[in-house]
Structure formats: structure tokens, C-alpha cells
Design a protein that fits this description.
652 residues, alpha/beta, seven-stranded parallel β-sheet, globular, disordered N terminus
């Protein structure tokens, strides 16, 4: 905080805003949210991207006596916000996997001694037993949930872990909650408020309409896209631009094309290394790189206010995604151009992503049977291992576990690390000699169950617990204490989830069918959102007004700055003629895959292979290197599945 500036809550909020952040005026909606937080009332802030949601917790965090805990889904969001806070001399930190043990320990110590005003974490951090132990010793006055739409099953970026946040709030006795999001439909808004018991009168929404964004829908032949994109870039070669694509390989191809035409462009996607992505992002932020061709991995948390163009080379995934992505342009209030190069040629790719997330009824049944077969009423499992064995992607698997929680079958208890290992800064005898009596015996027993390799010493926590008949938490607290005193350097890995089994008397067939139906309903809903997006883009009325209405805002006057208001109504068509599936030889397409897959072969897996859908169960097969992978990615998933299913070749 600014040096020697005392915290005086009696001063007007405008005075505090100027003193701590140097701003003269609040943006729309900010003061109303901050007033509620200062009055110890939980609130929801629904502001467009770039409209100042972060200040709604940053200013109260300075003024409130206790620490603020911010839950954010992306490291990049934390990084940008943290740099801003440090520039304002506000003590803040983030906890993530990039920290060294020494850095982690220092942040924890500063948080426990109330030296930090803001600590930022991912939601997964709550399941870390080391962090949970530390959190109980911290004074947290405000819980902030960024991208709060992730808590809703009907939100566009649903994160199952977010469903536990209301319970974590109660467990750690955090009095106030602030939910932040840029995209929430009426249904999602109600879901968010219900889960945190927030009254509708404490929801502050400033609307989604942006008068400085021109929204253009441009029907285009697939073969003409790169030419149109090139012409757009030529109109203002140095204008900061994001080009969004669906697939990683498309990002590479389009970026190479632009670079070959002498434009400063780079691809950005999740398949790249962390250092490469960070370099590209930093170059774009600094203005050294003019254009980023990216999948949706790029954008959230990009605090660049002068992006002049957002071009969707491929269709976005949904209206919510479209709204977020165009919202990254024109944050400085100056005109920005947002264009969709529209056709229906990649719609099947978007739909295939949805179908690839739905677990099979057999996989759900297998999981239910596994729970039944556990000895006792506890279940320990490693998520990655289970995901591959059941062939269910990580996110749907986490969602499935929550559904089984709702069915009264399991309940998450805690997670722990299978492996704790450390390096000695002092000898074990020196550490033991610091204690007397029962505590000395306890500490000695810990070291008796350690195995020292060349550098690292590995602790067998379970053996210590069994030998002493003590709680696991006491052993963990002890080695954490050794680490805090810098007698050792502690690390941990291989997380295991622990669930209480509440019942084994269920009907596996009945429940697997019922839960599968829930997933199918969600699948239908997601496919419907793609259709809603197409309907928006083919609108015969003002696109901005239709977009605002989708998020619950009513506008009557035509905006005047969308393609419809400029008398250009889009008709979005298929522009690539696909030959009929009957023209292919199914045996030739899948023979190499079937040979490589062995026992993992099924019609469903063959369909995923041909449509280019990733699958945990197929991960070890390295399917991308098998001939004909993603050969039919532009065909509807269900159509390919039925074609293979009806083929005698696929069934032999």
C-alpha cells in the first residue's frame, strides 16, 4: 500500500479509490458492489469483460481487516492481477505449482501473520491437505470467486470443483462472498445465487452492450477464408489482433500463412510449451507481436486494452464464448472490429467435442461396481489412473463423481499426497534432540519410517500412522513444521482422492442408466447452444440487441454498429462438399487403428479415432500417429458411429 497511508474507513470510497489506486471515478457498478462488501453483505458482480470487476474486491481488500482469498480458474488471470496490485504497493501473492518451496513457505507465513491483503489460488488448492492445514490458521474475511459462472452446470465453462466452494466457505468460516463473471444467463445467475445463498437484490449487472464494438458476420466459402483474413489484416497491419480458431493444427497453419505474407503473427494453443506460450503472450502484450492465432486457451486474463480486432476464423463454441472473446477487444473505449468468418463447415467439429465428453453407460456402471467392491466404507483413487481405465475425460469424470455424491453413494472427504519426500538441512538427530518426552518419541518414529536415497528422503506416512495409531494429520503437521523451521526442504506428489462410501446397497444398473441420462441431457443442451449461436449469427434483427437479450438485458433501439444494422443479413451455409460415407471403405479406414487398439477396440473408439476426438483410454495408443486419424472430423459424430455400427467390418 502507499507508504505511511493509514487505513481510514470513515473516508468516502472515492477518497479511498484515489488514495490507493489513483483513479478519480468508479466505473459503472463498482461502487454499488464495494458498498455491499463493506457492509458485510455477499454480492454478485456481472460486468462485461474489461469493465473493472477486479477492483470490486481489490479496494475492499485494502480496507477490510482480514485477508481476501481469491479463487481463479487460470494462472494468467492471477499473474496479471498480481502485477497490477504490486504496482499499487498492495501486498498480494498467489499460490501455484511454479513456486519454489522457499517461496511457498514465505507466502504461507505472510498469510498466517496477516501481512498479505490478497492471496490468489486455484479451486483445486482447497483439496491439498498441506494448504488446508495452513488455511485453518489464516484469518480470511472475504472469499472472491472469479469466473463464477464456472459453478453452474449450465454455464459454458462448468468446473465441477467449483461446486464444492459453498462447502469450503462454511468449513473455513469465511463470512462474505463476492462472485464475479462477465457472462451469466438468467438461469446461470440464479444457480450461482442459490448455491451461495445470495439475495437477488445484491446482484449488480451493468449490461452486456458495448457501443464501441462493431459486430460483423461474414458468410464465406471455406476455401476463401485465408484470403479474406489476409485482406482484413492488410487494412491495418499493426493493429493488435486475435484470430480465434477451433483446432491447434489450424492455429499453426493460419499463423504460418500470415507470417509467410510478412505479418507478425504467431500461433498459441495448449499443445505448446509453457515457455513458448509465455513468450508469445508477453510479445503480444508489449506490442512486438501484432497478431495471435489462438485456440480458446488464449485470452482469459489478457489485460491488453488496445486490441482492435477479434476475428473468429472458425465458429466459436457458444454465445457465451463469443461474448467473452469479442469482449477482449476495445477495452480502451475506442472502436474495435469483431468479425466471424461464418460457414457451417466446422460445426461438426464443435459438436464432436460435445459428444466426446459424454461417458458411456458401461463406464458409469463399471465405476459403480468398483465402489461396491471396496473393502470397508472408504475409497481411495487417483483421478488420472481412473480416467484412463474408465476411458472418461477428466472433467466429465469429476462431474460424474459429483452426481454420485448427489445420489448419496459417495462423499468427498479429502485428498492427500501418496508421496512426501524431503532433503535434510539439519541431521535427523539434531531435529529429534529438539523435543522431549512423547513428542521426541513421535518425531523419532517419523524418521524411523523414512528411506533416504541419494538426495531425497522418502517418508512412509501410512506406516507411521499404523505404528503409532495416530491421525494422519498429526504426521503431516509435524513435517510441515520441520519445513517451516527450515530443518528440511519438503515436497509432495501423486495426489489421491479419498471418498467416504455412504451406501453399497444401490442398484448399479438403475443408477448408471439414470446418471447416463443426465449426461445425455447435458449433451443435448450443449448441442442446442451451438444451434442458438447459429441462430444469433443469422439474425434478421440487431445482433447487439439479440446478444444482450440472451443475457437478460432488454434493448429497444437498433445499435447501428452491427452487420444487420448495416443491412447485411447473414445466411450461413455448408461450403465444402463432403463425399458420402458410403464412398469410403470402413475396413481400410480403421484397420490400422483396430490392430493398434487390440482389446481397446470398439465401434465407439473407432468413431472417436476417425472424428479426431481425444480419449483418456486411447492416450497410450498415440492415435495421432496412426494412419487415418481424424479423417472424418468434418462429419457428424453420430452419423459416423451409425455408419461403422452398421458395417459388418466394424463388428468383426
Amino acid at each position: 500500500m502507499p507508504e505511511n497511508l493509514p487505513i481510514d474507513q470513515t473516508r468516502p470510497l472515492e477518497y479511498q479509490l484515489k488514495s490507493y489506486f489513483g483513479f478519480d471515478l468508479f466505473k459503472q457498478g463498482q461502487k454499488a458492489v464495494i458498498q455491499r462488501i463493506m457492509q458485510q453483505q455477499s454480492a454478485v458482480a456481472i460486468f462485461p469483460t474489461g469493465a473493472g470487476k477486479s477492483l470490486c474486491y481489490q479496494l475492499p481488500s485494502v480496507l477490510l481487516p482480514k485477508m481476501t482469498l481469491v479463487v481463479s480458474p487460470l494462472l494468467s488471470l492471477m499473474k496479471d492481477q498480481l502485477e497490477f496490485l504490486r504496482l499499487k504497493n498492495i501486498p498480494a501473492a498467489r499460490l501455484d505449482s511454479t513456486l519454489s518451496p522457499e517461496e511457498y513457505h514465505q507466502i504461507i507465513e505472510d498469510a498466517r501473520t496477516n501481512k498479505l491483503k490478497i492471496v490468489m489460488i486455484s479451486v483445486e488448492r482447497f483439496k491439498n491437505e498441506r494448504f488446508r492445514n495452513h488455511l485453518k490458521q489464516m484469518q480470511v474475511g472475504l472469499l472472491v470467486v472469479d469466473e463464477a459462472h464456472c459453478i453452474s452446470e449450465w454455464g459454458h465453462n462448468f468446473r465441477p470443483e467449483y461446486l464444492k466452494l459453498p462447502e469450503y466457505r462454511k468449513e473455513f468460516n469465511i463470512p462474505i462472498v463476492l462472485l464475479l463473471t462477465a457472462t451469466a444467463t438468467i438461469k446461470v445467475r440464479g444457480d450461482m445465487c442459490a448455491k451461495f445463498d445470495i439475495s437477488s437484490e445484491h446482484v449488480i449487472s451493468t449490461g452486456f452492450y458495448r457501443e464501441n464494438l462493431f459486430l460483423q458476420i461474414s458468410p464465406v466459402q471455406e476455401t476463401e477464408k485465408v484470403k479474406l483474413l489476409l485482406n482484413r489484416i492488410k487494412e491495418a497491419p499493426g493493429a493488435p489482433t486475435i484470430v480465434y480458431v477451433t483446432l491447434q493444427k489450424t492455429a499453426e497453419e493460419v499463423a504460418d500463412f500470415l507470417a509467410d505474407n510478412q505479418f507478425k503473427a504467431s500461433a498459441y494453443h495448449a499443445g505448446m510449451g509453457n515457455e513458448d506460450r509465455e513468450h508469445i503472450q508477453n510479445s503480444f502484450m508489449a506490442g512486438k507481436l501484432h497478431c495471435v492465432v489462438a485456440t480458446i486457451a488464449f485470452g482469459m486474463g489478457i489485460d491488453k486494452n488496445n486490441i482492435r480486432r477479434v476475428i473468429h476464423y472458425n465458429m466459436p463454441k457458444s454465445i457465451e464464448n463469443y461474448s467473452q472473446e469479442i469482449g477482449r477487444s476495445g477495452r480502451d473505449g475506442k472502436p474495435a472490429f469483431c468479425e466471424v468468418l461464418a460457414n457451417r463447415d466446422n460445426i461438426n467439429v464443435l459438436e464432436n467435442f460435445v459428444y466426446g465428453d459424454t461417458p458411456t453407460a458401461d463406464s458409469i456402471h463399471e465405476l459403480l461396481q468398483e465402489i461396491k467392491k471396496q473393502d470397508g466404507m472408504q475409497w481411495h483413487m487417483a483421478l488420472t489412473t481412473l480416467s484412463r481405465r474408465l476411458d472418461i475425460k477428466s472433467l466429465p469424470l469429476k462431474t460424474l463423481l459429483i452426481y454420485l455424491d448427489k445420489e448419496g453413494i459417495i462423499r468427498p472427504k479429502y485428498s492427500y499426497f501418496n508421496t512426501y519426500f524431503f532433503k535434510y538441512n539439519e541431521s535427523k538427530d539434531q531435529i529429534i534432540d529438539r523435543f522431549d518426552g512423547e513428542r521426541r518419541h513421535f518425531v523419532k518414529t517419523i524418521f524411523d519410517f523414512c528411506d533416504t536415497k541419494k538426495v531425497w528422503t522418502y517418508l512412509d506416512v501410512n506406516s507411521v500412522v499404523d505404528h503409532l495409531d495416530c491421525k494422519r494429520q498429526r504426521v503431516i503437521a509435524a513435517i510441515e513444521y520441520f519445513n517451516e523451521q527450515k530443518w528440511i526442504v519438503l515436497q509432495s506428489k501423486q495426489a489421491t482422492e479419498v471418498y467416504d462410501i455412504l451406501s453399497k446397497s444401490y442398484d448399479s444398473i438403475d443408477i448408471s442408466k439414470r446418471v447416463f441420462d443426465v449426461f445425455k441431457d447435458k449433451e443435448t443442451y450443449e448441442i442446442g447452444r451451438i444451434a442458438s449461436m447459429l441462430d444469433l449469427f443469422e439474425s434478421r434483427t440487431c445482433i447487439n440487441n439479440r446478444l444482450a437479450k440472451y443475457f437478460g438485458e432488454q434493448r429497444r433501439e437498433r445499435c447501428g454498429h452491427c452487420s444487420v444494422c448495416q443491412d447485411s443479413i447473414a445466411e450461413i451455409k455448408h461450403t465444402t462438399n463432403l463425399k458420402p460415407l458410403a464412398a469410403y471403405n470402413p475396413n481400410e479406414l480403421i484397420s490400422a487403428f483396430r490392430k493398434k487398439a487390440g482389446d481397446h477396440y470398439s465401434v465407439l473408439n473407432a468413431t472417436k479415432f476417425l472424428c479426431g476426438i481425444s480419449s483418456p483410454g486411447l492416450f497410450s495408443l498415440k492415435v495421432k500417429s496412426i494412419p487415418n486419424h481424424s479423417m472424418l472430423e468434418n462429419y457428424p459424430f453420430m452419423k459416423v458411429f451409425r455408419w461403422l455400427e452398421s458395417s459388418s467390418t466394424a463388428l468383426t
